[in-house]
Amino acid sequence: MAGWLRVAWRLQRWELAFVAAACAGLAAAAGLLAVDMRSVLAACDPAAADAVACTSPYRFQDSHGSAVSLLTMLATVLPFGIGLVLGVPMVAREVEHRTAHLSWALAGSRLRWLAWRAAPVAVVALLLVSLPAVAVDQMLRARWANSDLGLLEFGAHGVPLVTRTGLALGMGLLIGALIGRLLPALLVGIGLSVAASVGLDLLAPLWMPAEPLPAVVQGDERLGARWRYSVYRAPDGAWISEREARALEEAAHVRAGSAEPDPASLPEEVGYGTPSHRYPDVVVRESAALAVAALGLMGAAGLLVHRRRPG
After folding, report:
1. What is the dihedral of CA 8, 13, 14, 17, to 10 degrees?
2. How many CB atoms are closer than 10 A to CB 122?
3. Are 120 and 4 in contact (CB under 8 A)?
4. Tens-digit pLDDT profile for residues 254-299
5. Which residue, 1, 79, 137, 184, is the most exposed by fewest CB within 10 angstroms?
6. Averaged over 107-125, what is the pLDDT?
7. DSSP assignment string, 80-108
8. CB atoms within 10 A of CB 50
9. pTM of whole model > 0.85?
């Protein structure tokens, strides 16, 4: 493995250095924010007038909220950036520079050559992205110190950030092998990365099955839950549409006049989604799906390399 790492560094040292700097910078920024927010909470005086604000989940909305949101957004796009920077050039550069025929001949097997190139880069990339994965997770836990993080900002921290990097690497490798030209492959890769990001959100219900959410996590208090949709139940227990529920509410307020309507006369809203305690199950399901997809993409890239002409 040490020899493979030396080869990977010699061939992609600038890309690896860029990814290392990006991961280390994001991890350092997130770590500093986490330390700063926790120091603020530690300095809160329980007897002070603002003690309630210290325990509020929105304690850092004005002071740290913008910085946390920016770093969270950067963490969300980081896997796809790594996939483009490291995955696309592996095959595309060799084909474009017309050195592929020599490299493949020296390796004795095109698939062996691809494994020697891709495996060490993938290992290094996954190790590097684990730094911001941990740091951003700690930053979000400090930001929402008194709440269950659950599915909040899912994909921007922890294990999902690492598994999505593996998927992005496989996608970048396949694009480079398919197009064989660095700049066109990067441009196509950017578009497909956007599509993949949107696709992961659309596919989320596959590993985030909806179930009735407890009333406590509906509305603004559902920080760690992933809300999907609402259904409505009339006072007599019958399921009704949203329009019918709004009509019942209006009628109840009209009958009550200036007073508050009887809660028993109002329709009940039941939220459906994935509660925060399902986070481990969701991580396992998504990780398994993305691992299969990443292996499929890398296998397709290997098939293209095996059949491709060097020129």
Report:
1. 100
2. 20
3. yes
4. 888 888 888 888 898 888 989 888 999 999 999 999 999 999 999 9
5. 1
6. 88
7. HHHIIIIITHHHHHHHHTT-HHHHHHHHS
8. 10
9. yes
- In angstroms, the CA 147 to CA 156 distance is 17
Amino acid identity for residue 229 in this structure: Y
Residue 147, Ramachandran bin (φ over 0: left; ψ between -120 and 50: alpha; else beta) = beta
CA dist list (Å): 33 to 66, 120, 128, 298: 11, 32, 20, 37
Whole-number Å distance between alpha carbons of 297 and 191? 17
Is there a contact between 283 and 156 (Cβ–Cβ < 8 Å)? no
The closest of 191, 149, 173, 157 to 82, measured between CA atoms, is 173
Query: Is the Cα dihedral 200, 203, 207, 213 positive or negative?
Result: positive
DSSP state of 156: S
What's the pLDDT band for 7 if we cut at 50, 70, 90?
Answer: low
CA angle 131, 152, 128 (to 5 degrees): 10
Residue 215 above 70 pLDDT? Answer: no
Q: For residue 245, what are its two tokens?
A: 């529920």
Side chain identity at 13, as an amino acid letter?
Answer: R
Q: What share of the chain is helix, strand, coil (3-state, %, to 5)?
A: 70, 5, 20
Q: Is 114 exposed, middle or buried (0-12, 13-18, 19+ CB in 10 A)?
A: buried
Token pair in block for residue 275: 């509660």
Separation of alpha carbons 84 and 127, rounded Å: 17
Given a contact cutoff of 8 angstroms between Cβ atoms, the answer to whether 240 and 249 are in contact is: no
**Tokens, residue 56:** 């509020």
Contact (Cβ atoms closer than 8 angstroms) between residue 217 and residue 272: no
Please, what is the Cα angle at 167 between 166 and 173, to 5 degrees? 90
Closest to 136 measured CA to CA, from 86, 217, 78 = 78
